[in-house]
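It is worth pausing here to work through a concrete case rather than discussing structure prediction in the abstract. The textbook approach is simple: state the sequence, then state the predicted structure, then interpret. We follow exactly that order.
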Amino acid sequence: MQVTLQRKNDDYLFHGIGKAGVAIPIDNTSEENAQGASPMELLLMGVGACSAIDVVAILKKQRQQIDDYSMEVNGTRHEVEGAKPFKAMEVVIKLKGDIDPAKALRAAELSFTKYCSVSLTFEPQVPVSYRVELNGSPIQE
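Step two, the predicted structure:
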């Protein structure tokens, strides 16, 4: 796997380009007029997107009707010798549709414990927790 980055201005804006050839703007968001996501935001997006692809694939195989899918991915950071790496992440999966709550929970569990390469890359150094909401209500195990 390989990506390329190309600087796009005289400051910090880069375009990251992967296999599909789509440019993703990446910038220093601590500067005014940032035109892209920060590298740390991209890590959170990567965790969310990886899991979302897993959950959708699992629920589709089970013939569950997903009408809407959104997520929040929150990262908690701490300072280590000048850097601020993540020390934990939490993903909130928000599903709407005719979906069996047990199947939604199981899909999320399988994603985070078995299939999501991105979140598994962080474990155990950066624990990734998750919770699932279905049609506006939290699902309890």
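Step three, interpretation. The radius of gyration is 17 Å. Helices lie at 39-61, 101-115, 117-122.
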